[in-house]
Known about the structure:
Blueprint: H1 2-17, H2 23-39, H3 41-52, H4 56-82, E1 85-87, E2 98-100, E3 107-111, H5 119-130, E4 134-138, H6 144-157, E5 163-165, H7 170-177, E6 183-187, H8 190-201, E7 207-210, E8 216-219, H9 225-237, E9 249-253, H10 257-272, H11 288-297, E10 302-305, E11 309-310, E12 315-316, E13 319-322, E14 339-345, H12 348-356, E15 365-366
Amino acid sequence: MNVMKETLQAQRRFFAVGKTKDLDFRIRQLHRLRNSILKHEEEILHALKLDLNKSDFEAYETEVGIVLEEIKYALHHLAGWVRPKRKATPIVHFHASSYLYCEPYGCVLIMAPWNYPFQLTMTPLIGAIAAGNCVIIKPSEYSLRTSEIIEKLVREIFPASYVSVIKGGRAVNQTLLEEHFDYIFFTGSVTVGKIVMESAARYLTPVTLELGGKSPCIVDETADINRAAKRIVWGKFLNSGQTCVAPDYLLVHSSVKERLVCAIKKCIKVFYGDAPERNPDYPKIINQKHFDRLLNLLHSGHLAAGGTYNESTLQIAPALLDHVNWKSAVMQEEIFGPLLPIIEFDRLEDAFSMVNTHPKPLALYMF
């Protein structure tokens, strides 16, 4: 645990030198990161295959490609971001000139999740580097292979006094949160998010929390049913439903429910085949604990389609759960898996009321 303190102290000393504030320095580091990702691209894709069974296409689409585009965007805009901005001067300061200067926070902690372990580690890292900070990265212990390649990549291009990776489980998380960071970026569950914010409050450390929630998808009687079905299936079952902005449940007008369910079933077959749980390109559930949790939720309501599973590979076929209500077990927590509960409504106002009487979701989809 002394390694954490020593690393943080070394980063504070390096930040105090002021080197990270230099625009050319930031640009060079982003180029180095990009070049290293391209160099290790096959290893990254292989790690994502081992951790989540992502195909090369899905891994590039949702992880590597997004990161490379993020670097490209930051490099294109960085000079403009750091330039002082002229601001209006209050009348009480007549004759003065006012400018806004952007300053880095200092030493930043990035706590990354397991569901998009490469993308959701690298995108906040890009922002932290672009802003001129030093960074400690804590990747998820669940996505072990991806965490290993992230550590390899970071060690290869950055000194530990600038960017460092610290691996481990819950005990390491708790120890890190006892330290005084200047900013914390956390992606994960609401439960852990509360712990992060509580720990940060002791030092008045600003925090970005990227959490999940039960994001609704509403389909009314005017929707293009086939288009809605395709987009719902793609958004819900991407990464086997382990996406924080995935549609968590479906609110559908009773007059189009049967058509929509039929269209969704067809799309699932087109996308994933007759037996998704045996499709070598269909992502798996991250571990046995979450696999068992999802199997228990399959008993909520009536299983209208799918739900077959392969315990040896931790794959669960996309499942549609009908006759679900708000007291059903599947509606008590964020699902974070390939289960889609279906609830009918007769008036759009009723659908809005159902959404508004529950905690605010991270996303909402309307067809």
